Amino acid sequence: MNPNMVTTSATLCGYIITENLGVVHGLTVNTREIMSDIGAGHKILAGGQIEAYIELCELSRQEAYDSLCHKAQARGANAVVGLRYTSHEIISGITGILAYGTAVRVSKDDY
Predict the structure, then answer these.
(1) Which has more confidence, 45 or 20?
(2) DSSP 96
């Protein structure tokens, strides 16, 4: 799906929604690595960003987003509106990332 056709807003500028195909979601569950935890422990003492965790968060967000887009396309959507993310800890060290939104069909607004 064209990333320009996914938005956090309820509308897509320059397009009209012609069909609402329902809520879609993408979910991923990831865990930290022990080596990342060791490196993070040092950063906690010294301060600064923890790059391994940033990379894990970015990867998880992208996996959830890609899954959402795939499910939207499978329903025949050419856009997603109202994109949101949420996360939750399943157990210590294991986190779920959920991306959700509304799959829609849109057409160019000629007005």
Answers:
(1) 20
(2) E
